[in-house]
Description:
This protein is of the alpha/beta class. The longest helix is centred in the last third of the chain and has 16 residues, at 511-526. The protein starts with a strand and ends with a strand. The model has no long low-confidence stretch (mean pLDDT 97). The structure holds alpha-D-glucose-1-phosphate-6-vanadate and cobalt (II) ion.
Amino acid sequence: MIKTVATQPYLDQKPGTSGLRKKVRVFQQPHYAENFVQSVFDALGDEKTGQTLVIGGDGRFLNREVIQVAIRMAAANGFARVVVGQGGILSTPAASNVIRRRRALGGLVLSASHNPGGPDEDFGIKYNIANGGPAPEKVTDAIHANTRTIRRWLMVEAADIDLDTLGEVTVGDMTVEAIDPVADYAALMERLFDFTAIRKAVAGGLTMAFDAMSAVTGPYAIEILEKRLGFASGTVKNGTPLPDFGGHHPDPNLVHAKELYDRMMAPDAPDFGAASDGDGDRNLIIGRGRFVTPSDSLAMLAANAHLAPAYAGGLKGIARSMPTSAAADRVAERLGIPVYETPTGWKFFGNLLDAGMATICGEESAGTGSDHVREKDGLWAVLLWLNILAVSGKSVDQIARDHWATHGRNYYARHDYEGVDSARADTLMAELRGRLATLPGQTFAGLTIEAADDFAYTDPTDQSVSRNQGIRVLFEGGNRVVFRLSGTGTSGATLRVYLERYAADELDRETPEMLADLVAAADEIAGIARHTGRTRPDVVT
Length: 541
Ligand code: VG1
Ligand code: CO
C-alpha cells in the first residue's frame, strides 16, 4: 500500500522565524510541499511510529490540498492517528492546545500567518513539537538538512477524506479524526478567565469591536465573545475565514486594521477594540481613544494578570523578545520576578515555559501568550484584557495611564522597510556589523552611543546558543535602536528598525515626537537611505 515517490531536493526550504513560508506558486511546484513534509517526518526518526499527529491551518488558499497530501504521507510514515480540524481549520494557539491535550508527537500548522493569502500570495508550513510549541532550532536545522538531500517521499494510495464531517475515517492503517476546531480551545479559555465577571460587565454595558480580518479567529471569536460572553451579535467583524482573507493583509496593525483604529478613535467608539491575524496568534489592542503598543500590552497584562483566575497566584517570570520594549522589565522588577530576553520568534519561549521559569511571554509584533499553550495567542490576550477591564472596572485608557504613572513610559515604534533588494539589505547589515566595535562613544543626531552588539542568546535550560539575532545600539539614558532583517517574508528583504525611548515623566506625549531623534540617529548609523534608497518606512507599527 505504501508508495515511494522519487524526488529531487529544492535548495530553498530553510525554515525562517516561524516555519517555511513561500509564495503559493512556489509551493505548487511538483513535490515541493511533499519534500518539506517528508523532511519533517524524516527528522522525527522512528519516534513517530504509532503516534498521533495534529494537522490544521488558517484556511488560506492551498490549505485543504496540502492537508490531504499530508494525511496520505502521515499514514505511509507510520503515524497511527491524525487529528485534523474540521474544514482544515485550527488556529495556531488551538493547534498548540490540541497537540498538548491529545499527547500528540507534534503537529503541522499550515499558515503564513499575517502574510496575505490567495493564488498569488503566501503559504506556509510549520512543525510544532510535543509540547505544542514551534520546533526549536535543532529540529528546524535537521529538517533543513533533510530538504537538501531528499530523494523520495512516502504516501499511501487513498482518496481525499471529507474534511467537513466530524468523526473518524481510515486512511491506510491510520485513523483520521476530524474535530471541532473551537471546542477544546473555548473550554480552555473558560478555565483561565473569569467568564462570569466578563458576562456581568457586558450585561452592564461593556462594549467591544473585534476584527477577525476574514482569517481563522472568526469562528473562535463568535463562539467565545458573542455566544459565551454575551457581546452583541455583530461584535465580530469579518468573521468568516476566506482563502484570500478578502484580499487584505490579515495583519492586525494600525495600517492593515485601520478601519478598527478609526472606529476606536471616534467619539462613539465601543469600550474595547481588538483584532487578530491570519492564524490567530497575534492581537491588536485599542481602547476607546487609546492604542496600546504590543510591548505596553505585554507589560500591562503582566502587571494585572493576578485579576484573572489562572494567574491569581502570581507569575513565575516574564519573557520577551529582544526587540520588545523594556516596559515588561519594569513590571518584573517591581514584582520581584525574573525577566528573560530571547531572540525574535516564539520557538525561543518554549523551553522557559516548559521549565516553569516564565508564565507570560510577549513580542513587540503583537504576540502575547502564557504557559497555557506553547504559542502566542491572540484571543487569550483579548480575554485577559477583558477580564482585567471587567474586574477592575477601569477603561483601557485609565489602565494605561495608571501603568505609566507607576512604571514610566517606554515610547516605542517599529519602522519596516519592505521589499528591499536582498543584496542591499545584507550589505547594510554587514556594514553595521563591521562597525559595531567603533560605535560606542560616537554621537549621532545628538545621541551618544553607550554600547552596541549583535544579539546572541544562550538558552538557560539547555545552553544552546543562537547568534546574529539583531543589532542593538544602546544610547546613554537607556534609549535604544535595534536593526534586524525579517525571517518571515517571501520576496526581497524587510528591514526592521525598532526604536525605544524611556521617559520617567512626560507620560502624555506623541510617540513620533519622542522618537524623532532616534529615527534620525538610526538612519545615520545604518545609512538606511543610502543603502535602500528609502527615506521613510513602508509600515510603522
Ligand atoms: C515576525 C515577528 C516575530 C514573530 C514572527 C512570527 O518575524 O517579528 O516577532 O514571532 O513574525 O509571527 P520576522 O522575522 O518577520 O520579524 V506570525 O504571527 O507571522 O507566526
Ligand atoms: Co500569526
